[in-house]
Design a protein that fits this description.
Elements (H helix, E strand, L loop, with lengths): L11 E2 L9 E2 L3 H22 L4 H22 L9 H15 L13 H25 L7 H24 L10
Helix pairs in contact: 1-2, 1-4, 3-5, 4-5
Length: 178
């Protein structure tokens, strides 16, 4: 397989599962797929920085696998997240919340490098979620309830992991002073 074909040089592309009709690279479907790809790539970087936090690294690896499934579904493949995937994420968040201090309000991103990177990943997840919602609302894809719920829950998981990273490093979160 070639790394490029040159067919997209004029700003169009095709998506797996489509009738190979060329669509603008700036349209909602490529935007959603690109946002998912950007998030997944950044999570790979964060995962490598979580070398001293194997629990976080393993969780991020699982998220990356799920994002590949969501990308495939969004592109039009007959792929779906397994039933129970959202519940597993919810359970992980609940377990983390038992370990970290209760949240008292908004917190300023940072504390540790890993926490800051997880906060960036959280914002990328929210953007990817918005793009996925647009694809569904425009009836470009009939995305599963599990996918929609997973994308909603993912940013909460990444926020919990960011807080956990600070907690494990002994860093106290800072709240904005407004």
């Amino acid at each position: 397989m070639a790394l490029f074909t040159g067919k997209g040089d004029i700003g169009t592309t095709t998506a797996f599962g489509c009738n190979q009709q060329r669509i603008s690279k700036s349209s909602e479907l490529p935007e959603a797929l690109g946002s998912l790809d950007e998030l997944n790539a950044f999570l790979g970087f964060v995962k490598m920085r979580a070398i001293d936090s194997p629990r976080i690294a393993i969780t991020l690896r699982e998220v990356q696998e799920n994002l590949f499934i969501i990308q495939a579904e969004t592109a039009g493949a007959d792929k779906k997240l397994k039933e129970g995937t959202v519940e597993k994420v919810s359970e992980a968040i609940n377990e983390i919340e038992k370990e970290i201090p209760k949240i008292t309000g908004f917190s300023i991103a940072g504390g540790t490098e890993l926490s800051a990177m997880l906060d960036v990943a959280r914002t990328l997840a929210r953007r990817a979620e918005r793009r996925i919602i647009a694809v569904k609302e425009m009836n470009l894809r009939d995305l599963s309830h599990e996918t929609m719920a997973y994308m909603n829950r993912l940013s909460s998981l990444l926020f919990a992991l960011a807080r956990l990273a600070n907690h494990l490093a002994g860093v106290t979160e800072e709240n904005p002073k407004y």
